[in-house]
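Continuing the series of single-chain predictions for the mutant panel. This is the parent chain; the variants come on the following pages.
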Amino acid sequence: MKGLVHCFVPEDKFTLLKGADKITTYTFNTHTAKHTFCSVCGICSFYRPRSHPDSYSVNVNCIDSPCRLKFKITKEFDGENWEKNIQALNPDFAAPQN
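Parent structure:
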């Protein structure tokens, strides 16, 4: 429903140029993912995903000129069944053991 199109960016390649004072963060469950959104409009333009905690997921739909970027298209992901499908997205991800 968010219209989120992930573009994973390594932490050392990500710089927030403006608006940090408007960003609100929430976490839940394992508190690994840091879900960020604009406190004014509610848009999720980027966040720290649980699947790639050393990166940011930038929402391509929030980039003014995405055609200037180089993308590596991976695959669609079944987020409704996240735990069952995460290994296909990130083979290095170690899910917590129950």
